[in-house]
Amino acid sequence: MPNKDMRFTSKLYAYYRLEKVKPRTVRDNINGNLPLFIEYCSLNNINSFNEVTKEIFLNYALWLKEDKKVAQSTGYARCSVLEEIIKIGQIKGWDVPKTNI
């Protein structure tokens, strides 16, 4: 991950998910769904989950569809993990946006 804040928030999310599901599922969710978001962040100079707004989230979904040509279900899975990180982070007080996306 390019930024230590994003790495730390991802670790917090991993620990949260480990309470709910098996370690393999957590690994697969993070390794399967976050790399494209990290790529998008580096292309758009986004350094923290806290910088993600509704507009950035929607542009990410559009980027997945148009530039990366991912299937609708794949795009949904990638976006839902990002959305879950932000929602859980708001509840737990992580470095994520305070407003809903």
Describe the structure.
With 101 residues, the chain is mainly alpha-helical. The protein is built from 4 helices and no strands. Helix 3 runs antiparallel to helix 4. The longest helix has 21 residues, at 23-43. The radius of gyration is 13 Å and the shape is globular.
Say what oligomer this is.
single chain
Mean pLDDT figure = 94
The unreliable regions are none
Major sheet characteristics? none
Helix content: 55-70%
SSE string: HHHH
- The total count of helices amounts to 4
SSE topology sketch:
Elements (H helix, E strand, L loop, with lengths): L3 H15 L4 H21 L10 H13 L5 H21 L9
Quickly list its features.
mainly alpha; 0% strand; globular; 4 helices; 69% helix; 101 residues
Write a brief caption for the model:
This protein is an all-alpha fold.
